Structures
1.
Amino acid sequence: DGLPSLSPADLSDDTFDQLGSDWVVDADYHDYLMVTAVNTPYVDSQLRAAPGAHLADGAMHLFVIDDDRFTKADMTRILLDQSSGKAFMASDYVRRTRVRAFAIMPQHRDDGPDRGSYIDVDGEDFPLKPTFVEVVRGLISLHVLPADH
């Protein structure tokens, strides 16, 4: 609803020049320290990064750390406060936004110099190639048995 038609196969080096006005392109900065997208309050069993996130709200919470001033001490503060997520949410170095879709265009591909870059999806290595992620509501139904059975 409103998103331009775009699939992973459509992504190329000049794709961002062709995106519609619904898309925001962050073309000014390319050295990201971390990009995290979640649709639940927790990134993992301990890091509460998006307290307001809900599985059924049709959005992802996108977090980007790209500031060269972000230090190891800043990361340590965030890691030590994982369970509440307050340090993560309060950090001036973490940009936060709700999105329905996003695309990542790595500058360093699998077939070139990667300078230590990598993409991790749910703990698994992911190829350094253009990647498109979109929330698709109603794609899965979850049925659970109550705990008292």
Note: Strands lie at 34-38, 60-65, 94-99, 101-104, 119-121, 124-126, 131-134.
2.
Amino acid sequence: MTKTILVLFYTTTLFLITGCMHSSLQRQNFTAYLDQFIGQPKETILY
């Protein structure tokens, strides 16, 4: 039961992430969300 819930959650998050990446306007919001989620500035991730 928990495995199916995890798979559904994983697929939905992947779908949302790909949807955000495709639109250029929400891409900046997605990078800002990634910065908040990871807790590191973008420079340390990119370089």
Note: Helices lie at 2-22, 24-38, 42-46.
